[in-house]
Design brief:
With about 350 residues, the protein is mainly beta. It has one domain: Beta Barrel (Porin). Helix content is about 5%, strand content about 65%. It is built from two helices and 14 strands. The protein has a twelve-stranded antiparallel barrel. Strand 3 and strand 4 form a beta hairpin. The protein starts with a helix and ends with a strand. The N terminus is likely disordered.
């Protein structure tokens, strides 16, 4: 499986030779359970659409598209049920369209500011059983619960980078802030044989602000004595916060029918990552596959990266006052151009 992942990364990177890759990345992160999280961003510099020597105002802009997906599995018990158990599968997909980002420089600082649209899909499937002496004479009931969420949100993206004078040390800070989000939810819940009717709900709500912060320190290693020593070392911290509020159909206290309940959740992700980048001269490797590769192509500095880190996902149910936290070790494999 790992060999296939490496092949996918290499092939995809070779296909990106026409793009502006100052911020390009193609990454897989693999957790302890073997689940793979792809994270990609493909930028296009506006100046690449015209004469490379042009000095027009728009040559400092770029656009791009990005994609990220994640699957989480868990098992738990139902609240206030003597005998119960259910499994959950949550699949999250995020699509980003960077409309326009401006780049500028001032002495040892470089900065970017831009806007993007983000489309989020969350599919949650739960299946399990429960039994209670107070419900249906203690008989066992099966429950199947499906939630599909689609959300659109505008993002303001800013980034500041600092290069220490006469040094090989580099700092990068990024912030993504979304002032609002439009959320649509579809629910189907079946509890058999307790209730013969499937609960179906469609709702649309406006959400509160969400945000993401990232900081990274990069150091270039000089005077390498062994080939195994990386050319760059980096330490990265990422934190994101996503609040959601929506309506669900739930059982009433007597378990005789469904009722509408307001649900409010807050999801946070905290990730630490140590990465190593190697200058393997991909340009020379790529020339063996295509004669269209030139020295000006971005892959001259598109470096393979390896890393290991930790990710903590916290799901807080504000309505019920409960919290679920999962911490996992993750392995990073990818290609990036920011070193």
């Amino acid at each position: 499986m790992k060999t296939k992942l490496v092949k996918i990364v290499v092939i995809s990177s070779l296909l990106m030779t026409t793009l502006y890759a100052e911020k390009a990345k193609f990454i897989f992160e693999i957790d302890e359970e073997g689940e793979k999280t792809p994270d990609t961003f493909y930028p296009l510099k506006w100046s690449s659409l015209s004469d490379s020597n042009s000095t027009e105002w728009w040559t400092n802009y770029y656009s791009g598209v990005g994609y990220n997906s994640e699957i989480r599995y868990s098992t738990d018990t139902l609240d206030n049920m003597e005998a119960s158990k259910y499994s959950s599968t949550i699949a999250t997909r995020k699509y980003k369209l960077n409309i326009a980002t401006y780049e500028g420089e001032f002495e040892n600082l470089s900065f970017q500011i831009g806007g993007e649209l983000e489309f989020i899909q969350i599919d949650k499937h739960q299946f399990g059983y429960f039994s209670s002496a107070l419900i249906n004479a203690g008989d066992y009931n099966a429950i199947e619960h499906n939630i599909n969420i689609e959300a659109w949100k505008p993002n303001l993206v800013t980034q500041i980078s600092y290069v220490a004078p006469e040094s090989d040390f580099y700092l990068r800070f990024m912030a993504i802030v979304s002032p609002t989000m439009n959320l649509k939810l579809q629910q189907d819940t079946t509890i058999m044989p307790l209730i013969d009717v499937t609960a179906h709900s469609d709702s649309s709500t406006t959400q509160e602000a969400s945000y993401e912060f990232e900081a990274e320190a990069i150091y270039k290693i000089k005077n390498k004595r062994l080939a195994i020593i990386p050319d760059f070392f980096s330490f990265e911290v990422n934190y994101d916060f996503l609040p959601l509020e929506y309506k669900l159909m739930t059982l009433n206290s007597s378990a005789t029918e469904y009722m509408t309940e307001n649900i409010q959740t807050e999801e946070t992700n905290l990730r630490y990552m140590v990465k190593f980048a190697y200058d393997l001269k991909i340009k020379d490797i790529a020339k063996q596959f295509t004669n269209k590769f030139s020295d000006k192509d971005f892959m001259d500095t598109m470096l393979p990266t390896l890393g290991i880190g930790s990710k903590t996902n916290t799901m807080k149910n504000v309505t019920k006052g409960t919290k679920e936290e999962i911490t996992q070790t993750i392995v990073h494999l990818g290609f990036e151009k920011k070193f």
